[in-house]
Fold this sequence. Notes:
five-stranded mixed β-sheet; 11 strands; alpha+beta; Sulfite Oxidase, Chain A, domain 2
Amino acid sequence: MGFKFQAVVYPLLLVALVGCTSQPDFDAVYTRLNIPSLETGGAIPDPEEAVVLTVSGQIGAANKDQSIIMDIPTIESVGLVEYTVEDPFEKEQRTFSGVLMKDLLELWKVSPDATVLTVTALNDYQIDVPLDLVRDYPVMFALKQDKEYMTPDYRGPAMLVFPNKHYKFELETDSYWAWQIKTIAVK
C-alpha cells in the first residue's frame, strides 16, 4: 500500500514542480529591434561620435590602450532590444530600449573569473553590480526611455534596467538601476 501511495504522489509532485516555473525564457522578455552588426570576436571600432562609455578591467577586448571606449552608434550596433517594465522610482510603466548587458559582456570578452561590475555615473556615484545578475537575466544597458534618448540632465546617456516585470529576483535590484553611466570597471 505504501508503494502505491508513493508511485501515485511522486508523478503528481513532479508534474506540479515542472509546471510551476516562475522564470520566463530569457529571450521571451524583450523584442529585438535590429540585427546586430557588431558581434563577439570582431574588432570594436574607434568611436566616430562623442564617447559615452569607457570599459576597463578584466576584459579581453580593447580599442584604446587596455580599455574600450564606445559611442552610442557602436553600442547600438551590438543589437537593440526593447521591453516595458515598471520604473521603480517613477512608479510608472516605461518602455526602455538599448542593448542586453549579456551581449556587451560577450563583446568585451569579460573574464569568466570576474564577479562585479563597478558602475560609475557622471556625478561619480558608484555601485557594484553582481556580474551574475547581468549574465543570467536580460538586464538592459538602456539608451532610450519611451522612444527618446535619455539626456545627461535626466538619466542619460545610459542606465541599467532590470526586467522586474518578468522576474522575481532573490536580491533587491532597485539599487542597481544605475543611470548617467560613464564607466564600467569589470572586476
